[in-house]
Automatic annotation (TrEMBL):
<feature type="binding site">
    <location>
        <begin position="15"/>
        <end position="17"/>
    </location>
    <ligand>
        <name>shikimate</name>
    </ligand>
</feature>
<dbReference type="GO" id="GO:0050661">
    <property type="term" value="F:NADP binding"/>
</dbReference>
<dbReference type="InterPro" id="IPR013708">
    <property type="entry name" value="Shikimate_DH-bd_N"/>
</dbReference>
<feature type="binding site">
    <location>
        <position position="87"/>
    </location>
    <ligand>
        <name>shikimate</name>
    </ligand>
</feature>
<feature type="binding site">
    <location>
        <position position="215"/>
    </location>
    <ligand>
        <name>NADP(+)</name>
    </ligand>
</feature>
<feature type="binding site">
    <location>
        <position position="62"/>
    </location>
    <ligand>
        <name>shikimate</name>
    </ligand>
</feature>
<dbReference type="GO" id="GO:0004764">
    <property type="term" value="F:shikimate 3-dehydrogenase (NADP+) activity"/>
</dbReference>
<keyword id="KW-0028">Amino-acid biosynthesis</keyword>
<dbReference type="GO" id="GO:0019632">
    <property type="term" value="P:shikimate metabolic process"/>
</dbReference>
<dbReference type="InterPro" id="IPR041121">
    <property type="entry name" value="SDH_C"/>
</dbReference>
<feature type="binding site">
    <location>
        <position position="217"/>
    </location>
    <ligand>
        <name>shikimate</name>
    </ligand>
</feature>
<dbReference type="GO" id="GO:0005829">
    <property type="term" value="C:cytosol"/>
</dbReference>
<comment type="function">
    <text>Involved in the biosynthesis of the chorismate, which leads to the biosynthesis of aromatic amino acids. Catalyzes the reversible NADPH linked reduction of 3-dehydroshikimate (DHSA) to yield shikimate (SA).</text>
</comment>
<dbReference type="GO" id="GO:0009073">
    <property type="term" value="P:aromatic amino acid family biosynthetic process"/>
</dbReference>
<dbReference type="Pfam" id="PF01488">
    <property type="entry name" value="Shikimate_DH"/>
</dbReference>
<dbReference type="InterPro" id="IPR022893">
    <property type="entry name" value="Shikimate_DH_fam"/>
</dbReference>
<dbReference type="Pfam" id="PF18317">
    <property type="entry name" value="SDH_C"/>
</dbReference>
Length: 276
């Protein structure tokens, strides 16, 4: 009987996780079943319990359930605690649920592959929501010089920075970014690109050498990345690699084998272009 895994969310129809994980399993000659599970917004815990009762081995968790997943796991990784959210649940033989967060790993891995080392870099993160919270600890572990969390409502950025209480973390509103020293990397962790919009940041932030990253992905560059290019940035990358690398880490946690994420990323990119 195949080991059973799911991705749980609402909505869930758009998820590329089944394609990714079946590619990993094929690479490693593993016999798994991986499907999508649409959970009602008011019964996430019951959906997980039912999945476990049916013999489920692990679950990826996506919007809007990552915070709820943290609450139902009996064991949490350092990354999950720091993120305040869980995107990977592992079901132990005794039924214990272990929660991990691989989003930050996926981001940092993709940044390094595309931009090189993050050591001693000044990093700007746009947005002060869960996506930002999930990547701060992994970014700090890369020995960056500084991270500025910027948000339209600065109080939200201040709250995250105060919570992490790290000497390399700073907060800002969007307007004041024009006064900051040059950044080496800018990461859009807002949902603006989902609406074909861009965060209202000063154009002075963008320069020819800055590396621009958008956590959102699609079959073509996001509005934010197109704007960065128009303002002179040479290096822009979307979040598809983050998706695949975080999935690879989840798979490794479950199966104790590391898949070739780069190969699957190429296949997924091709798949998205064909279906646009």
């Amino acid at each position: 009987m195949s080991d059973s895994y799911v991705v749980i969310g609402n909505p869930i129809g758009h998820s590329q996780s089944p394609f990714i994980h079946h590619q990993f399993a094929q690479q490693l000659s593993h016999d798994i079943e991986y499907s999508k599970l649409l959970a009602p917004t008011n019964s996430f815990k019951a959906s997980v319990e039912d999945f476990v009762k049916k013999g489920g081995r692990g679950a990826n968790v996506t919007i809007p359930f990552k915070e709820q997943a943290l609450e139902i796991c009996q064991v949490l990784s350092e990354e999950a605690r720091a993120a305040g959210a869980v995107n990977t649940i592992t079901v132990s033989k005794d039924g214990t649920l272990k929660g991990d967060n691989t989003d930050g790993y996926g981001l940092v891995t993709d940044l390094r592959l595309n931009f090189g080392t993050l050591q001693d870099k000044r990093v700007l993160i746009l947005g002060a929501g869960g996506a930002t919270r999930g990547c701060l600890l992994p970014l700090l572990k890369e020995e960056v010089r500084a991270i500025v969390v910027a948000n339209r409502t600065e109080s939200k950025a201040v709250a995250i920075v105060n919570e992490f209480n790290h000497k390399k973390l700073f907060s800002s509103n969007f307007d004041d970014l024009a006064k900051e020293p040059e950044f080496d990397v800018i990461i859009n962790a807002t949902a603006a690109s989902l609406n074909n919009d861009i965060p209202a940041i000063p154009s002075e932030v963008i320069h020819v050498d800055i590396h621009c990253y958008d956590m959102v992905y699609g079959s073509k560059p996001t509005a934010f990345l197109e704007w960065c290019r128009a303002k002179g940035a040479n290096k822009v990358v979307d979040g598809l690699g983050m998706l695949v690398h975080q999935a690879a880490k989840s798979y490794e946690i479950w199966r104790n084998k590391k898949p070739n994420a780069s190969d699957v990323l190429l296949k997924l990119r091709s798949k998205l272009r064909e279906t646009q």
